[in-house]
Amino acid sequence: MIIKEITIRKMKMMMKNPFTTSFGTFQEKGFLLLEVKDELGNTGWGESVAFEAPWYSEETTQTNLHMIQDFLIPLVLEREIGHPDEVSELFGAIRKNNMAKSTVEGAIWDLYAKRNKMTLAKALGGELNQIEVGISIGIEENVADLVEVVRGFVEEGYKRIKVKIKPGADIEVLRELRKNFPDVPLMADANSAYTLDDVELLKQFDEFNLTMIEQPLASDDIIDHAKLQKELSTPICLDESIHSLEDTRKAIELGSSKIINIKIGRVGGLTEAKKIHDFCMERNIPVWCGGMLESGIGRAHNIALTTLPNFILPGDTAGSSRYWEEDIISPEVVVENGYITVPTDYGIGYVPNLEVMAKYTVETMNYKA
Ligand code: OSB
Ligand code: MG
Prior knowledge:
The chain is of the alpha/beta class and 369 residues long.
């Protein structure tokens, strides 16, 4: 296939509810969508999962736009591409900027699947017809509110509850949740809010029988995570620390992570995500698919990836209605009884809803040779 045209849309959407992590609160989501078109008129869609501010990683919407416009588009426009795996090779010449790379690569994966008349899930080698999903819940003002929020999602059928924690909002929160929901698979995500000085505190989490604790320590610190894991019976799962197959190998070799959270954007695209999946599968390390509060386009990519066999644990890919008044795809992503039915239409399997999309589009940029 030859990439003939690329369109970037700058988006701005309000989330239904504010989302609070150990870094702070936000509700307005600015992000990029990218559409590629081939010489036959087929299209493919990708989403940049970078946020507007660099709190989760150093990438932002604006750095992604810069990288995509000035470096990545020139590498793919008018180029003959046989398979999307070639894209990550092409992008290998550029350091890091994984979310920017993933935006373009994801669109080309969708295009490739559509052109070859198969689902993106199938193109990736996935086989499941439905995937199990959990939900990630932000920090609430008080624990009683959180318990009610959790109750609602447990009743909706979500297969696992993840709550955000930070120093001062941890032990008491987890104790209260466990008291109210003794049997629900529960986990906590710290987004790097702790250090090794907190070992004694973190050890106390073991009594809550958590499925895992996600990224307790710094994003660039796999050494201390290994030290911490030796002290805990709760498995550690790394999120922010994992940018590649190499990071995964090192974290597993060191004993820093017993479970891996795979986010397509963070690792630079679906090709690398698949490599990490395969590597972990060979070593009996379970993986799950993380979320970045995506619109329907990014969500669809997550669903396709989650059909691979080692996505043993429920991911963070909740239904569209958890985030948005209206999503920009049709149909929207629906969760029933904790499952999403994998779409059977070609490519990402959901149709971009251009009318709804237009309402939230701030700027459109078009690139042709
Ligand atoms: O750490 O997994 C995280 C959201 C934004 C940035 C980082 C994270 C999260 C979530 C929510 O936990 C995932 C989602 O519902 O998309
Ligand atoms: Mg996380």
